[in-house]
Fold this protein.
Amino acid sequence: MRTEFLTIFWRDMTKFFRSKAMLFTSLIQPALWLALFGLSMSSNFDLITPGVPNQLGVPSVNYLTFMAAGVIAMTVLFTCLYSGISLQFDKQFGLMKEIVASPLPRSHILLGLSLSGVAKSLIQSAIIVLFGFVLGVRFFEGFTIEQTLLSMLGIVLFIVLFALGLLFLASTVAMHLETHESLQGVITLLSLPLFFASNALYPTNSLPLAIKIVSYGNPLSYFITGMRCFSLGSNFYSVGTYYTYGTYDVLTALAFLIVFDIIMFLLALRAIKKAKIV
Amino acid sequence: MMEEHVISVEGLHYSYEKVTAVDNISFSVKKGQIFSFLGPNGAGKTTTINVLTTMLPIQKGKVTIAGFDVDKHQDEVRKSIGIVFQNETLDWNLTVWETLEFHGRLYSIPKSNRRPMIDELIKLVELDEKRNTLVKHLSGGMKRRLEIARGLLTRPKVLFLDEPTIGLDPHSRMRIWDHIKKVNKEGVTIFLTTHYMDEADQLSDTICIMDKGHIIANGTSESLKNSLGMDMIYLETGDDEKAASIVKRMAEINSVRNSLKGLVISLKEEGTRFMPKLVERIRNEGIEIKSVNLKKPTLDDVFIRFTGRELKEENNENAKNKIMM
């Protein structure tokens, strides 16, 4: 097997750990979201939807724990979409030319970038989970050790799949746009509906119809479904809503993300193979 | 064995939509040479280099590099050449060493060869002290040297340099030239494009003058200049027109043309003996002589001879346009 994509991965990670400011902000930002938005909203939500005695035996989940999956989603979303900007930078400021002049297959540019994007996403998610625990996020409550480990694997799988799709999407957009300024605009525009027309911060059942429809086609919603099922269990009560996840829901989410990844991969591959870099 | 050609180009043609950039050119480069493409901006030099280095596809013609057909064996060609692009292609947030390491890995050079080679090249381009410095902290000349080192990492048979000293100060330029000569002495064939006459003149074994997609002259610097005759005289008088008509009738001269500062006379013989005769003849006609200057022909004169335009002026024009844009 050809492993040249590891070169692209190595360069990206070297830079990630080098730029201390970037590393720090990319780790502190999700923590701040959790601390500021999470804690503030949580005190309000818990007031509005007080511990209504819910169905027998179904655990109540506080808002902070509920939205923690949303913060992970948001972090992965931004990290991966912003990887497009570094690709665009290479294209605009020359290094891409050095890469495409080498015998490295172009698909490896994409593979290397994806690998580093996934690695960054996993590191950041782990930090959110740890920091969240300090603030009062309670993942894996009532799970046995085996269940916890299995759930962690499930979470990693979902983060990988979600990150890949976003990385391919960002690469496609980056290869089509000429400047990083325009890319920045497009990324911001993309991230708004992806994040807010979803179940990341609130249940979708009471959303206006149009937003609800968007949320059903939104990969982020399926990512959250998987994350919540693995971190909170198949039955729980939160934000005035009773959640129940079956095997069917998890498999649907998995299938949706896999299809999303495949489509995005094909688009990105086509864009990077067709790109004229002279 | 016959004369070895490391690059051979036959009937190469390249157009961008409606604009023809390279129009049916053919040339070959002997192994171990420094070969220059000299011409104004927009002459088609970079397009040619891009086709030769597989960055652009072959539209028409046949190109062989180090024995490989560029159209059919892209990867083999890529492994036999090194490229220093016209515009900087460096990652500012990598160190000197990392830049080379990255390149070596891109070309799948095994670690056991790669690491010693990197050390050797860092020494060659005198960046030992900057080994762990980020690229963004290097000067323009150092960045260029790093790019040359990078181009050599794969032990290429040919090193392509597209305008290697563009935008550098005179001191850095001379140093880059020294490095290019040093690399060439170690057996690497050099293909460079430039719009600086002195660069082509100082460095090259063979010069190919290119203009508007065509090769207009080809040879050693000496042979190109000698094709114009022996010496050039720059003459400024009170009445250039009348002086020109007198000079034209003299047997020793090749040609006369008007420039911004008087007449430029190309001679068949050495100028030192002819000059007094010329001065006397013009004085006798009652024309005042303001200045006389004897020079050896330059590549610029060669360019003028074939195109009727000055290479220098054109470069200045281009520079002005760039600033205005």
